[in-house]
Amino acid sequence: MFAGCFSQDDLGRNIFLEVNDAIIFENNRSYILGDTIYVDVKFSRYLDETNQANKLDIFKSSGSEAFRYDFRLNKFSTLSNDFQRISISPEFIFAEKGTLDDFNSFRATLNPENDLYESRIGIILGETGIFRLELNFVAFSSDNFSRDNVFIDIRNRFTQENMDFEFVVAE
């Protein structure tokens, strides 16, 4: 009798959204050893949802005060003639806004006005070379997992074509 009453309606409650230009990286293309580059994230608490007239309140729907995301830093290798992913040591990365965890994952947090999710990540350039940030496929995921809320996955989309995330660090 109880088995007949069980339903999996609550499983798979995922919402997939898109946001335009939530990531801001002002690329000077040329830096000096010891400079700091910044990656800013900013997106509204209220987002468009496909086939819906009203905006979705992602805080109310997910219960998340933060959205988790990752990006990679790659360095050009002469041996492979390609870019290779490199790890960033904790002493070379910090969060001015939002948070950073032990695994170099970032969280855009709800600002004090409760209208925007924001983060500002700084990377201290500790070695020379040619680098590229992988920012084209960043997704923001809600980090509150409860039965009362839905999981929200937000894909960033750049509206400007041919965004350049490659830069050089010299001595």
Summarize it.
The protein is mainly beta and 171 residues long. The chain has a single domain, classed as Sandwich (Immunoglobulin-like), CATH 2.60.40. Helix content is 5%, strand content 49%.
Question: What does this protein look like?
Answer:
The chain is elongated. It has two helices and 17 strands. The protein has about 170 residues and is mostly beta strands. It has a single domain (about 15-170), classed as Immunoglobulin-like (Sandwich), CATH 2.60.40.
- Residue share in β-strands: over 45%
State the helical fraction. Answer: under 10%
Q: For the record, give the distance between the C-alpha atoms at the N and C termini, rounded to a whole number.
A: 73 Å
Order of helix and strand elements from N to C terminus: HEEEEEEHEEEEEEEEEEE
Number of strands: 17
Which class of secondary structure composition applies to the elements? mainly beta
How many H/I helical runs?
2
Please summarize the sheet with the most strands: 10 strands, mixed
CATH fold assignment: Immunoglobulin-like
Count of discrete domains: 1
Radius of gyration: 19 Å
CATH class term: Mainly Beta
Q: Which oligomerization state do the chains in this entry correspond to?
A: single chain
The residue ranges in which pLDDT falls below 50 over 5 or more consecutive positions are 1-10
Globular, elongated, flat, extended or rod-shaped: what is the shape? elongated
- In the CATH hierarchy, the architecture is Sandwich
Q: For the residues shown, what is the average pLDDT?
A: 90
